[in-house]
Every structure is written in C-alpha cells, then in structure tokens.
Amino acid sequence: MKKNNKIVRYPKTLNINIGVIFFALIFIYLIFNVYIYLTAKHVSYYEVDEGSIRIQTTYTGLALREEQLVYAAESGYVNYYLKDNSRAKCGSLICSVDENGDISGEITRAGHTENTLDTESYRTLVDEMKDYSNTYSDMSFYNTYTFKNDLQAELMEAVNLSALSSMSEYAANAEADNTFHRVKASVPGIVSYYCDGYESVTADNFTDGMLDKSGYEKDNRKAATQVEAGDPLFKLITSENWQLVFEINDELKKILADDSVIKVRFKSDETTAWATYEIRNRGNKNYLLLSFNNSMIRYASERFIDVELLLTKQEGLKIPNQSIVEKSFFVVPQSYFTKGGNSNSQGLLIETADDTGEKVQKFIATDIYYSTDECYYVSEDHLEKGTKVIDPAGGETFVISDTEKLKGVYNINKGYAVFRMIDIKYQNEEYAIIARGTSYGLSQYDHIALDGSIIAENEVIN
Q1: What is the pLDDT of residue 73?
Q2: Beta pairing partners, 63
Q3: Which residues does 68 contact at the CB level (< 8 Å), separation at least 6?
Q4: What residues have CB less than 8 Å from 344, skipping those under 6 apart?
Q5: Quick one: which of 53, 120, 235, 286 has the fewest CB in 10 Å?
Q6: pTM for the full model?
Q7: Which residues have a Cβ under 8 Å from the Cβ of 115 and sit 6 or more positions away?
Q8: Contact status, residue 349 vs residue 363, Cβ threshold 8 Å
Q9: Element (H, E) at 368
Q10: How far apart are CA 173 and CA 178, in angstroms?
C-alpha cells in the first residue's frame, strides 16, 4: 500500500491570554496616572486654626529729661565732691573752682595718698559693701563693675571732702580773696557730669536725626581738671518724670492704637516698668513717646536706652504669610444690589443691548467678597470696567470704574479656589494673626492654599 507523505497543516487558533491583557491595561493606567501626576499642579494646603504670636519688640529710644546745665563763672582748676548720678539737695556742694590751683592741688594730692576717712564715711562704705555682698547673684554679675565704679566715686568724694575740710581756714581765706569758689546746687536734683547738647530737647522739638546714635558723642566734665569761664561744670536733672522716643512702623501703631499703657523691659539690667504712651505723627513717620515717673536715676548717665516692649499676645486665626495674596475688586454702592434670577443670590441689573440693538436689563449674580457701610466689593471676573448698572429702586444708573485691592487667601474646601478676604491684626516674618468671624472671611478648620501665588480664582485643585 502506498504511503501518503503529504503534510496537512491545520489552521492556528488565536490563544488570548486574559492575564497578560489585564496586566497591560493596568500598566498603561499606571503610566497615565504617573504622567498626570508629574504634569499636574500640586497645591499644598494649610488648615486654619486658632493661634497666637507673642510680640516682643526691641527699640533704642532717645531719653528726654528736665536738665539744667551749670556753667563755670570763673576759669581755674576744678574738683568734684559728689558722685555721678547722686541726689543733691538745694545748697549741696557739687564742685569747686580754684583760680590759683593751690587748694585744688592739695585736694588732688590727698586723693593719691593714704588718708583716714571720718567715721561716718567709713561706716557708709562698709554698709554698702555688706549690702552688695548679701544680695550678690551670679545671674547679675554685670552689676559688679557698676558697684566698683560707684564705690570708687564715693571714696573719692569722701577723700575730697575730707581734704577740703582739713583746709577750711585756707579755703576761707581764698574765698575771701575771691580766688576759690564753691559751686552748689541751686535746686534739688540728680547730679550728672556729662553733657551732649541734648539738654534742651523735648517731646515737642526733637528731630528725626536726633534718634540716630551713630554719630552721638558726650563730654565727660568730671574728667576735666581745668575749666574756662563759660564751660559747663555739671547738670542737674530736676524731675523724676522723663520720656523715651523712637520711630515705630504702621503695624505696631495699629496694635497700640486702642490703649495708652504698656510694660517695658530695660535691656541693660532686665528691670521692668510701666509707661504711659502716645503716638505722634510727623510727615509719613510714626513716633512712640513713652512717659515714666520713676527709675530715671538708674539710667541718668545714658542718652540712648535699649528697651523691649512687652506686648500681650496677639490671638486669632493663624495663617502663614506665604498664603496671603492681593486681588483687585470693583467697588459698587450697596443700593444697586438686588435679588433675582432663579435663586436668592445677590446681584446687579446691568444695561445691555439685544440682537436688535435695543437696550435691555439683565441680571448678573455676583459674589460679594467684602462690604463697608456703603459699598460691596465684587469680583472683576464677571464684570467689565465701564459696565452700567441700574438701581432697582430708583432707576438711576452707575458706571463701574473704581477698584480697590484686598488682602486675602484662597479657600479650597470645595475642591476649587475661592478668594476670602482677611483682616490682619498682626504679622511677623512667618505668620499673620487675622480676625475671627469676619464677614466673607475665614473660619477655623478651613483649608487654604499654602502658596497663594501659584493658583487663581476658581481653579480646580487636584
């Protein structure tokens, strides 16, 4: 039998692997989503919450006091008997001027030799050293040098007075010859031995340039051994009432506007005091004038004093500065708003023309972003400058033209950006405290765009 070698090919059937197709679709879907994610705009959000910012602001103020300069009537050698920044009664001996220099020389030499103090002076110095030792603290070590200088001044005062007393007869003869002159306090006050040209400056006549201490110089009169007639010898500060003045910005002016008393910390010794204050405006600058009725003697040797204003915490809704944007709005009188259309939404009747050119009225619903007693602020998105709106009550017309900018943030609660006006109470470098419960504003737990500069009104948020 003949063998059949013919090969018959059977048609191939298409074997579809459902698993491969399924995973291919998933892969394409993933690739698509990765692409969408990489090319989409990503908006981070910030949840609005209650917060506070403690305001602690440091300034350098110009000290204003009631000061009287006392000048030398004669030329000669000068010696001082009262320590700097000490109280002097009316008639207290402050210094002497010796025209010949004989008595002055003896007093000076007494300060460089061994002298025996009188009992009262010795007891006073010992008591002061005991008081300082009992109250000493490592936390206030900076007071050690102040105490040292005060003690040296008191010692020199006691030695000089002792030396003058030992030459009482000699001094009396010199006074009779009109060559030795005792200079006494004509009124009670605090004795200060420096002058700087600011003695007559007051809250009414200070200038902006005086607040710059970069070129400030003062003359220590106690360092002088000789004076000419007409030279200043010392000054008397005649009142415990004194003032500090310095420039402040508009934000601090706004915070301080509703009060008149503030707590202040002096940076040199960390002591605190209460001051009454007022804000004075000169040109486009604001100046804070602090008034004190105590502590003057502690800082009598300084013209420029560093202070920290201990303001209370500013509380409200806390938001990052990065979220804040500005947007321009049309300002329209409230009387032109009405309700219409298929809802109770507020809007405007505008005058327009139909296809035939005939004038007709059309209602446009508008979102209100802010209001004053007389006007509403509406978006520029649905209106054009020059649009004529109609008063629904009287038929009068108003042409939209005026615009103003408002500060606000973009609320993204609904998945798209909605501008919300904010009322900033206080702002530092990172955050702002805004008022709660403002109309058309924010509420606690609202979500806002963290960076308001990268999105626009009504933009959908992914």
Answers
A1: 92
A2: 244
A3: 187, 189, 199, 235, 236, 238
A4: none
A5: 120
A6: 0.58
A7: 159, 162, 163
A8: yes
A9: strand 368-371
A10: 9
Give the whole-angstrom CA distance, residue 395 versus residue 403. 23
Residue 428's nearest CA partner among 250, 253, 251, 246 is 251
C-alpha distances in angstroms, 29 versus 16, 24, 438?
20, 9, 46
Residue entry with tokens 């609904």: 414
Count the neighbouring beta carbons within 10 Å of the beta carbon of residue 58: 10
Rounded distance, CA 388 to CA 400, Å? 6
Give the lowest-confidence range in 138-152, 185-199, 404-418.
138-152
Question: What mean pLDDT is predicted for residues 160-179?
Answer: 68
What is the greatest pairwise CA distance in the chain?
Answer: 173
pLDDT surpassing 90 at residue 59 = yes
Q: What is the dihedral of CA 375, 380, 382, 388, to 10 degrees?
A: 60
- pLDDT for the residue 127: 64
- DSSP H stretches of helix in 278-405: none
CA distance 198 to 303: 8
Length of the chain as a residue count: 462
Tokens of 117: 């103090």
Residue 215 or residue 157, greater confidence: 215
Most confident range (mean pLDDT) of 209-223, 278-292, 336-350 is: 278-292
- C-alpha–C-alpha distance, residues 448 and 461, integer Å: 11
Strands 189-192 and 194-195: unpaired
Pair of tokens at residue 87: 């109280």
Dihedral, CA of residue 153, residue 159, residue 164 and residue 168, to nearest 10: 140
Give the position of tokens 């915490």: 313
Where in 21-171 does DSSP place strands (E)?
Answer: 45-47, 49-53, 56-64, 67-71, 76-80, 86-88, 93-98
Residue 296 has pLDDT above 80, yes or no: yes
* pLDDT confidence of residue 250: 86
Specify whether the CB–CB gap between 178 and 252 falls below 8 A. Answer: no
Tell me the H-state helices in 111-167: 119-135, 143-166
Residue 101 is predicted with a pLDDT of 82
Taking 80 as the threshold, does the pLDDT of residue 342 lie above it? no
Residue 424 contacts residue 326 (beta carbons within 8 Å): no
Average pLDDT, the chain: 82
- Residue 168 φ then ψ, to 5°: -60, -40
pLDDT at 41 over 80: no
Would you say 309 and 55 are in contact if contact means Cβ atoms under 8 Å apart? yes
The gap from C-alpha 377 to its chain's centroid, in whole angstroms, comes to 32
Asked whether the beta carbons of 142 and 112 are under 8 A apart, the reply is no
Q: Per-residue pLDDT for 381 more than 90? A: no
The predicted model gives 298-321 an average pLDDT of: 88
